[in-house]
Amino acid sequence: MNPALNPTPLADETAASTLPLLRVNQLTRLFGHEKGCQDISFDLYPGEVLGLVGESGSGKSTLLSLLSGRTPPDRGSVQYRADHANWLDIYEAGEARRRQLLRTEWGFVEQNPRDGLRMSVSAGANIGERLMAQGARHYGQLRETAIHWLQQVEIDASRVDDPPRAFSGGMQQRLQIARNLVSKPRLVFMDEPTGGLDVSVQARILDLLRSLVRELDLAVILVTHDLAVARLLADRLLVMRRSRVVESGLTDQILDDPQHPYTQLLVSSVLQA
């Protein structure tokens, strides 16, 4: 038998890794003149971190909301490769399917961790909840996994029964990261994950995120206004201004040799700060 006609699982896996995980085509949602985002197209690959950068009001958060299935577009499409070959148009799939994706194969790290945690239940329950959405029911295993992930994000295991409201802001953000990553998602959306935190806390969380993203081979779409964060975490950037992408490319290439006047202004303002 011709092996090309009967590929091995390894060959299937290799082929799948060369396919995009997400395909975005002409995605548009406007709330007024140049408010929102319009005509956005790109592919995202497994293990790739894509940064969305630009000034406040440029459309970054609107785009993230569209990509994560939280806000329907005026036009355009978001297609997700749900398995090795089959593509899912997330807005044709329906709200229930989008919610399921956000609980299982996707994650969403909010800027304010209180928006991404259940503040009335324990830290361990926050982590275990995602596993229960995938069918896990064994209490001992859930608790063991929760403790493991607390340790992964540098929270003492003795805090497993403490509610998130008893944690500092930095600890709440690390708990939210654990809550999202415990289910081994393929794609994680991050909205200013270090915004509002002290500089020293930011540094610890960025180091943690960088190591976990590489270790777990996550695909990530990251919104940030901080070009230092983008340089540390992102492989590729989309620079947004007035609802449009004005420049895109490899992170180092864009930050070291920006081509668009707006990107040049962004980079120079950071260098002069």
The CATH architecture comes to 3-Layer(aba) Sandwich
The shape is globular
- What's the total count of β strands? 10
**What is the CATH fold-level name?**
Rossmann fold
Structural class: alpha/beta
Number of domains: 1
CATH class: Alpha Beta
Task: Note the beta-strand portion.
Answer: 15-25%
**N-C termini distance:** 65 Å
Whole-number average pLDDT? 90
CATH superfamily: P-loop containing nucleotide triphosphate hydrolases
Description:
- The chain is α/β, with parallel strands linked by helices and about 270 residues long.
- The chain has a single domain, classed as Rossmann fold, CATH 3.40.50.
- β7, α8 and β8 form a beta-alpha-beta unit.
- α5 runs parallel beside α7 and α6 crosses α7.
- The termini are far apart.
Relevant terms:
273 residues, alpha/beta, Rossmann fold, six-stranded mixed sheet, four-stranded antiparallel sheet, 11 helices, disordered N terminus
Brief account:
With about 270 residues, the chain is of the alpha/beta class. It has one domain (about 5-95, about 115-270): Rossmann fold. It has helices at about 10-15, 60-65, 90-95, 95-105, 125-135, 140-150, 170-180, 200-215, 225-235, 250-255, 260-270; strands at about 20-30, 35-45, 50-55, 75-80, 85-90, 105-110, 185-190, 220-225, 235-240, 245-250.
